[in-house]
Design goal:
The chain is mainly beta and about 150 residues long. The chain has a single domain, classed as Sandwich (Jelly Rolls), CATH 2.60.120. It has no helices and 12 strands. The strands form 3 sheets. Strands 1-12-4-9 form a 4-stranded antiparallel beta sheet, with no helix packed on it. It is elongated, with a radius of gyration of 17 Å.
Amino acid sequence: MATVIRGSDNFDTSVSSNVVSTTSQTYTQVNSGFADIGGATVTITPSSSSNKVLVTFSAGGMTNATANEIQVRIMRGSTIVRSITRYGFSNAASSEWSSCPIAVNFLDSPSTTSATTYKLQMSTTQNNDFRVNNSQANYDGTAGIVSTAMEIGV
C-alpha cells in the first residue's frame, strides 16, 4: 500500500540544516578490505539530540572482474551505521568494465548535538578492481562525489 503525500498535508517535521559537500577528488581504487572513498565525507552538527540525519552519497563507479561483489558501508565516526553486503556485482570477463553507479542513503539517529562526521567505505570480495570517480583509461577523478547530510527535525 502506497502513502500519498499532498502539498496540503501537515507534518511535525522540518529540515533543520543541510550540508552538501561536492568534491572532484582523485579517484579511489578499492580492493579487498574496506577503504575510505576519497572526498566522500560530510560533517553536520545537529541542533537537537532527538533529530535525525539523512545522509546520501553519490558518485560514479566501475569494476572489471568476474564474480566481483561490491560491498558498501556508511560510517558515523568509527561506527558502522549502514552496511550493504552485495551492493553491486560484476560477472564480466576480466578485461571488460562494468558500470556500478553509487547512490547510497541512510536515515540515522545520532542522538547528539556534537559535530558528527559520516563517510563512505567500499570493498570487493574477490580482491578485484573497483574504481570510484574514474574513467577506464585515465585516473582523472573529474566526475565528482556528492555527499549530503540533512538534519530532520522531529
